[in-house]
């Protein structure tokens, strides 16, 4: 297959290099990634300034570009400008940190995959916990990749999360709906310790992790139960309009 690899952690992510090397043994691979880390940037694109792209090929002849823009920009440039010929599949990741449940709305990795789907190309968004070993994640994904059939298994985007476990310890693969993993509590107010900023406050994000319900059928709990989770995604945000009340206009 002709594959385009993108991410939001940046071109120099060790996991991206490992994935490109592993896939290039059997597939044509092009890499287009942000020049800098763009984690949690969501689905932003660059509209009011040009993008800068610098070619920095990976080992073993894998063509790669560092781009000044966002992950979604990288998908667009890769599909329209850099990849040789039609791309069969876009793979976004591996992300350093899970992309589960409500995380998806903030994720640059998932946005890059959804951008591909919007352009008519199927995509996979790949993530693992922040403490996962990059090479172990890639090894596990390559095993999954051989089992997947993009023609039959999903129509737009497949969101994959891999647990931080050795391959032999993974309990299995399961299709899961999205769960609920919102961090709890208010922002934590702390004094600013920097000289010259006395009296100002810093607000740190909530630090209480989501409650787990082991055995529950959702992506968050299944991942931490030791399973690889697969969740099909689409880029449409609409809900059905059938059955809505008529709103009078006078």
Kindly describe this structure.
With 250 residues, this protein is of the alpha/beta class. 23% of the residues lie in helices and 23% in strands. The protein contains six helices and eleven strands. The protein has helices spanning 14-24, 71-82, 108-118, 134-147, 150-153, 219-224; strands at residues 2-6, 28-34, 53-55, 64-67, 89-96, 123-128, 157-161, 172-175, 188-191, 201-204, 227-233. A nine-stranded mixed sheet has the order 3-4-2-1-5-6-7-11-8, with helices on both faces. The protein has a two-stranded antiparallel ribbon with strand order 9-10. β5 (89-96), α3 (108-118) and β6 (123-128) form a beta-alpha-beta unit. α1 runs parallel beside α4 and α2 packs parallel to α3 (108-118). The protein starts with a strand and ends in a 17-residue tail after the last strand. 38% of the residues are buried.
* Mean pLDDT rating: 94
Q: How helical, in percent, are the residues?
A: 10-25%
Structural class: alpha/beta
Biggest sheet, in brief?
9 strands, mixed
Topology record:
Blueprint: E1 2-6, H1 14-24, E2 28-34, E3 53-55, E4 64-67, H2 71-82, E5 89-96, H3 108-118, E6 123-128, H4 134-147, H5 150-153, E7 157-161, E8 172-175, E9 188-191, E10 201-204, H6 219-224, E11 227-233
Parallel strand pairs: 1-2, 1-5, 2-4, 5-6, 6-7, 8-11
Antiparallel strand pairs: 3-4, 7-11, 9-10
Throw out a few tags for this protein.
23% strand, nine-stranded mixed beta sheet, alpha/beta, 250 residues, 6 helices, two-stranded antiparallel sheet
């Amino acid at each position: 297959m002709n594959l385009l690899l993108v991410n939001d952690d940046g071109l120099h992510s060790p996991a991206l290099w490992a994935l490109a090397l592993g896939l290039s043994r059997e597939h044509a691979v092009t890499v287009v990634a942000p020049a800098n880390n763009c984690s949690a940037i969501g689905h932003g694109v660059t509209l009011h300034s040009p993008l800068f792209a610098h070619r920095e090929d990976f080992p073993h002849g894998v063509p790669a570009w560092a781009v000044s823009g966002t992950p979604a920009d990288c998908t667009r440039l890769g599909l329209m400008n850099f990849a040789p010929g039609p791309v069969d599949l876009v793979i976004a990741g591996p992300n350093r940190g899970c992309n589960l449940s409500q995380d998806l709305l903030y994720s640059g990795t998932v946005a890059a995959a959804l951008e591909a789907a919007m352009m008519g190309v199927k995509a996979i968004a790949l993530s693992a916990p922040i403490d996962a070993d990059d090479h172990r994640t890639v090894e596990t994904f390559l095993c999954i990749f051989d089992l997947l059939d993009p023609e039959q298994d999903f129509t737009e985007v497949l969101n994959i999360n891999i647990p931080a476990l050795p391959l032999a310890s993974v309990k299995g693969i399961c299709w899961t709906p999205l769960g609920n993993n919102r961090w709890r509590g208010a922002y934590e107010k702390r004094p600013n310790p920097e000289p010259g900023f006395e009296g100002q406050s810093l607000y740190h994000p909530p630090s209480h992790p989501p409650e787990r319900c082991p055995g529950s059928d959702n992506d968050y709990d299944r991942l931490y139960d030791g399973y690889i989770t697969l969740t099909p995604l689409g880029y449409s945000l609409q809900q059905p309009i059938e059955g809505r009340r008529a709103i009078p206009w006078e």
